């Protein structure tokens, strides 16, 4: 979206936020809700409480209390956003699907933010993907949603390290509930998926990187939820190869690392590489050479009853190998599996947008409640932007800008400036302009 398009979205934002007002117990909180969302959409360098409040002419303390202490239901807000996505951004029921249409893809991943000090909830020295090394940081786990070109964040959760979980006094100082304890990131991700399913979200696929794929228990949990998935696994991930039909439909005698399976197993060495061109978000397509076969995963030191896909993808230009495992049916087309697997990188685009445009990484506080509310408000604004981008993309080329919610252009070609809209809610006052929205 261009700056001119964003500048005309003030009235549309008010209309978008109105169905969410029921999450707030007092009318005065609606002002803070409006201010914070507009601040996240502004061009402020830092989208934390103080810059947003000062730009809006509000008091910093009032906005701090709104984020961390005032009574309002941020979990219900998250649920309403998920239900809206399920109702308005899912494939129409009964519509015939192309064999090449991947449908709705759930994106599982984590992101991290470097932090100083020891008071931010969950902060400690741990691996920080943002800088690619161990650093003092906060890690959060996320679930994204991708259907065609529409992308949104569905849910977010804090990864609470064991050092925090074991120190309940420290947790209470950060407003971390007593029932929130350490869980592996894979367990957190599974619970995010389960909650989204409860709100009507339906996934055709779930995708994830090797940080999640390396855990067989996570894969079996997704099986139990009835989900179809394809995820990257590390080269030392173990599976139980099968022998080709002309040997017999039996397993080999021991589990092996996937890097050795694709080098030595008859299931792979007797097949040719197939080339696939994989499109990317902002770069040229990449060609991957691929082999695939059915294998058994390892469960309780024994092979699983059913088989799974094992796929190796080789980038001849760089020499890189990637390994994927999937529970998709054996007849699934390999090109579809590859296109879905590489859609995982859509979550990285979402993270860049969330951090760079709406301030996901700008939280500055010591309250767990404040952190969760900040992430949910960022999800709110991201959904609004995704819907507006989708609407603008679907508008006919000859349609005047004003019919799509934008100001009509003047003779100079620039949008005409208009007065800030009246918000209309009881007890709400007109807000000062927060650029670029007003």
Task: Name the features.
about 450 residues; alpha+beta; 2 domains; 13-stranded mixed beta sheet; 16 helices; 13 strands; globular; disordered C terminus
Could you give the topology of this structure?
Layout: H1 3-7, H2 10-17, H3 27-41, H4 49-56, H5 60-68, H6 74-88, E1 104-114, E2 124-128, E3 133-147, E4 150-158, H7 162-165, H8 168-173, H9 185-198, E5 205-208, H10 210-213, H11 216-224, E6 229-233, E7 238-241, E8 256-257, H12 258-264, H13 266-269, E9 274-278, E10 286-299, E11 302-303, E12 308-315, E13 320-326, H14 334-341, H15 346-357, H16 368-394
Parallel strand pairs: 1-5, 5-6
Antiparallel strand pairs: 1-3, 2-3, 3-4, 6-13, 7-8, 7-10, 9-10, 10-11, 10-12, 12-13
Q: What would your notes on this structure say?
A:
By secondary structure, the protein is an alpha+beta fold. The chain folds into 2 domains: 3-213 and 348-399, no CATH class; 232-327, no CATH class. Helices cover 35% and strands 21% of the residues. It is built from 16 helices and 13 strands. The chain has helices at residues 3-7, 10-17, 27-41, 49-56, 60-68, 74-88, 162-165, 168-173, 185-198, 210-213, 216-224, 258-264, 266-269, 334-341, 346-357, 368-394, and strands spanning 104-114, 124-128, 133-147, 150-158, 205-208, 229-233, 238-241, 256-257, 274-278, 286-299, 302-303, 308-315, 320-326. Strands 1, 2, 3, 4, 5, 6, 7, 8, 9, 10, 11, 12 and 13 form a 13-stranded mixed sheet that branches. Strand 9 (274-278) and strand 10 (286-299) form a beta hairpin. It is globular and about 70 Å long. It starts with a helix and ends in a 44-residue tail after the last helix. Residues 400-438 have low confidence and may be disordered.
């Amino acid at each position: 979206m261009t700056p001119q398009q964003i500048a005309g979205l003030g009235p549309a934002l008010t209309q978008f936020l109105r169905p969410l007002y029921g999450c707030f117990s007092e009318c005065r909180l609606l002002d803070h809700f409006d201010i914070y969302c507009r601040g996240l959409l502004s061009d402020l360098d830092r989208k934390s409480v103080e810059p947003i409040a000062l730009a809006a002419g509000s008091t910093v303390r009032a906005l701090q209390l709104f984020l961390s202490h005032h009574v309002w239901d941020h979990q219900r807000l998250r649920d309403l956003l998920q239900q809206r996505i399920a109702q308005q951004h899912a494939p129409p029921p009964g519509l015939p699907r192309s064999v090449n249409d991947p449908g709705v893809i759930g994106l599982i991943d984590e992101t991290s933010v470097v932090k100083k000090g020891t008071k931010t909830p969950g902060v400690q020295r741990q691996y920080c993907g943002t800088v690619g090394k161990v650093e003092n940081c906060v890690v959060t786990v996320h679930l994204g949603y991708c259907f065609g070109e529409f992308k949104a964040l569905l849910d977010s959760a804090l990864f609470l390290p064991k050092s925090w979980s074991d120190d309940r006094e420290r947790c209470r100082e950060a407003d971390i509930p007593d029932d929130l304890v350490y869980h592996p990131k894979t367990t957190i991700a599974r619970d995010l998926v389960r909650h989204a399913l409860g709100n009507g979200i339906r996934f055709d696929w779930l995708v994830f990187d090797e940080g999640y794929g390396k855990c067989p228990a996570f894969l079996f949990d997704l099986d139990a939820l009835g989900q179809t998935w394809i995820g990257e696994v590390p080269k030392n991930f173990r599976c139980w190869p099968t022998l080709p039909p002309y040997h017999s439909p039996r397993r080999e005698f021991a589990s092996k690392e996937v890097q050795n399976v694709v080098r030595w197993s008859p299931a792979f060495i007797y097949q040719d590489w197939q080339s696939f061109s994989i499109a990317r978000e902002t770069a040229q397509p990449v060609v991957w050479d691929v082999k695939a076969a059915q294998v058994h995963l390892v469960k309780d030191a024994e092979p699983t009853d059913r088989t799974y896909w094992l796929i190796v993808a080789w980038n001849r230009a760089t020499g890189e190998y990637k390994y994927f495992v999937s529970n998709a049916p054996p007849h699934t087309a390999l090109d579809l599996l590859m296109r879905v697997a590489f859609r995982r990188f859509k979550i990285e685009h979402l993270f860049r947008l969330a951090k760079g445009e709406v301030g996901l990484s700008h939280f500055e506080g010591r309250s767990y409640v404040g952190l969760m509310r900040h992430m949910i408000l960022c999800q709110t604004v991201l959904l609004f932007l995704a819907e507006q981008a989708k609407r603008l993309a679907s508008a006919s080329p000859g349609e005047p800008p004003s019919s799509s919610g934008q100001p009509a252009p003047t003779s100079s070609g620039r949008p005409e400036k208009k007065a800030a809209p009246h918000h209309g809610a009881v007890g709400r006052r007109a807000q000062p302009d927060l650029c670029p929205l007003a």
